[in-house]
Amino acid sequence: MPASIRNFCIIAHIDHGKSTLADRFLEFTGTVQKREMKAQLLDTMDLERERGITIKLQPVRMDYKKGDQEYILNLIDTPGHVDFTYEVSRSLAAVEGAILLVDATQGVQAQTIGNLYLAIEQGLEIIPVINKIDMPAADIEKTSAEFMQLLGCKREEIILASGKTGQGIQDIVDAVIARVPPPKIETEKPLRALIFDSIYDEYKGVVAFVRIVEGSVKRGVQAQLTATLAQNEVLEVGWFRPKLMQAPSLSAGEIGYIVTGHKDIAACRVGDTITVADWKAQGVQPLPGYKEIKPMVFAGVFPKEGDEFQRLREGLLKLKLSDASLAFEPEQSSALGFGFRCGLLGLLHLEILQERLTREYGLDLIVTVPSVAYKVDLKRGETITIKSPSELPDMSNVDRIHEPWVKLDIVTPKQYIGGVMGMVVDKRGVYQTMEYLTGVESAAAVDDVVGARVIMHFQMPLSAILVDFYDKLKSVSSGYASMNYEFIEYRPADVVKMSILVAEDPVEALSMMVYEDEAARIGRRVCEILKEEIEQTQFEIKIQAAIGGKIVASERIKPFRKDVTGYLYGGDVTRKKKLLEKQKKGKKKMMSLAAGGVDIPPEAFIAVLKRRDEGK
């Protein structure tokens, strides 16, 4: 029955209870038997369960009967962290409505607002829900006021619920049926299906997660992808229950999966359109797909053992299939061998990538210092983009360097405004505006509201957010502040490449782009860290930070001391001098032979990554 389908997703800030609410939906509709239920059922990775966060979007189809009418409810559970915004945007493109979930104990957070804007851009119907109302610290009145100011909705439109106890689940399901418009049903037209996600199965090949926009598809038909032109016979179609469940066919308005049988992972891309084999002859137009995501953070990923390079490549290819925001290209380092330069959306994204490669593919990895992509204007009039410091041309050929800037939104209680402002300005941020989330319009009025919160808008360099910005934000706000950011533009930057030399040989994997006025401080810190991490040898090791030909910081690791005169029992002092001179020459020769041959342990790279900005 066409009008019986409702496609919707849940969007919220991280840790506001999306996955728990999804569990209650599955129980309420009887999609999963009680004996099979477990917490965070839709979070399929062990990593998601351990950290308590959703990393991957996860669809599920639920059947629900209200009176004499049967409904098909297609739900997509989405991540909440800013690093996985692309997962959210892809989910929103496959549905007609969104449940905007807010924790009653925390109120509206930065990522709540960011996800709301994404949903509004897609023209979705928004259903406001306040979750965790059973908690002792829940402040329903304040959260309702913030919701009304944010959405311009009426108080009676806000649904109160608890994902833990199941309270309000009936109201949410009824609101989804009443408010979310049914999809357009156009089964007479040729097949057009949007791929919003995919996975790789060792036996079935690429399994595409699709939203059928027009037409229908069943097993055995010939299909083609419009972007890659890869052709295949459909081996299987089905729904998510939440496990893959085979179905006779999928038709317009439905969300399900198609087993393509492709073994070539690159043939099936997220955002591509699956259509009929003779689509050009029938005049079928590809669906718009998704806006191309631009990686914001780049880091080198190398296997500790050189013979694992091929396994690393295969692992990245398979992860790319289920993580469309990941980009990578081969890279070679004199210190670390062959690896890949990976483009990601943030440091948590990098951390999850490293963890998944280690767990799912058994790889031991070294990750280099992350950096952002810089645009470099050359004196001959050309502009290039560099993704690592090693790609920077000689400075004599460079006219100007531009760095990415982001729009940063921070939601914080009013008492922490000063601390947050000071920290952001120290990180080269530029204050823009401030709004109140309490329904009041002035600072004088906000003083009368207990627990009042504000949204602060800044612009700042992306590189300033990379290392430890989020940790420091939580520190200055006693854990209450939250943040969301999005790229705006490239701006001129006074940055230089700082090279790290160990035993007078540059280690490209440790080179980094730094602001010129901070180079000496960061250089000293990196040299101190390496002095702690690199083991002593029989000769002196110099550790230096250099900008061009200028050394800005230096440390020395003293050699082991061996007393070559210890066995002498007397005689002329010249005997002792001869032995000491011979030892001196030997050490000099050993040092010249060993230049560039100092073993830098993998732990040193991790230590530099985590602690280079300490003490600021």
Describe the structure.
By secondary structure, the chain is α+β, with helices and mostly antiparallel strands. It has 5 domains: 2-179, P-loop containing nucleotide triphosphate hydrolases (Rossmann fold, 3-Layer(aba) Sandwich), CATH 3.40.50.300; 192-276, Beta Barrel (Elongation Factor Tu (Ef-tu), domain 3); 297-367, 2-Layer Sandwich (Alpha-Beta Plaits); 397-492, Alpha-Beta Plaits (2-Layer Sandwich); 496-611, Elongation factor 4, C-terminal domain (Alpha-Beta Plaits). It contains 15 helices and 31 strands. The strands form 6 sheets. An 8-stranded antiparallel sheet has the order 11-10-16-7-8-15-12-13, with helices on one face. A 6-stranded mixed sheet has the order 2-3-1-4-5-6, sandwiched between helices. Helix 7 (309-322) packs across helix 8 (347-361) and helix 13 runs antiparallel to helix 15 (602-611). The radius of gyration is 29 Å and the shape is globular. The chain starts with a strand and ends in a 5-residue tail after the last helix. 42% of the residues are buried.
